[in-house]
Amino acid sequence: MGLHSGVEVRLRILPAPAGSGIVFRRIDLDNFTIEATGRNVARVSYATSLMKKGVLISTTEHLLSAFVGLGIDNAIVELDSLELPILDGSSLPFVQMIERAGIRKQRRPRTYMRILRGLELRDGDKFIAIYPAEQYSVSYQINFPHPLIGREDFQVELSNGNYQRDIAPARTFGFLHEEAAMRRNGLIRGASMENCLVLDREKILNGPLRYRDEFVRHKVLDLIGDLALLGKQILGSVVADRAGHAMHTALVSKLLRNPYLWEETTVGEPLPEVSTPVVAALES
Length: 284
Ligand SMILES: [Zn+2]
Fold this sequence. Notes:
It is built from six helices and 17 strands. The chain is α/β, with parallel strands linked by helices and 284 residues long. A hairpin with a 2-residue loop joins strand 5 and strand 6. The protein is globular and about 50 Å long. The two termini are 36 Å apart. Zinc ion binds at residues 61-62, 172, 218, 222.
């Protein structure tokens, strides 16, 4: 079931040739395809949606996150509705399904997006940045005025099964006192105690947590899924502070529109000299 639409959906993941990237296919709309790239990002508020020629695919971030975490570059994702299923609110069910199906190594060497110059975006007290690095790593900080969350930070380098162990099981979360307003706005129609952590002003209503800091780990999961819209595995380190889908996808658009900030590479070449970060306004 889709978290926001509340619509039941069937999803099927198929192999794709090397170099094709991740492609969504609406089998209810004559196999209309939408590539998972920042160029197709549409509405971004509580989830990330892609749109092409008026056709929508919603809440793409958890599955795309699983793909990145497992090192999957090419796949066709068929679905018969407009929103991906929320499952248990994490990406673990996707990871388990993909691992059961098996992953095939393809012949063509992977191309990476290697960050050459840092890029920093700020929006009030929200911040996101990406810097040159030899590996893909994410560092996230959140600060929610809630007795169970408060300030949490988490850092992960995406290698050696770290994603499966430290990120994939982290579930999405929501606050009971925001529920009515969100439903009035047509959001979270499919939300239940089975597919998200629900908090009131003091406690969790459907614990226990899978990690003490599950909330910030889920933000890392979302960020990895949103940055998958760059269309390539990243060599760079991402730092985020109280960001969200809008800032994640702003970073994606900014990088895609400014190719001097990065280069395409296969691994093995040394990192060029690091220069000062580019600080950019969020809008441009
Ligand atoms: Zn999420």
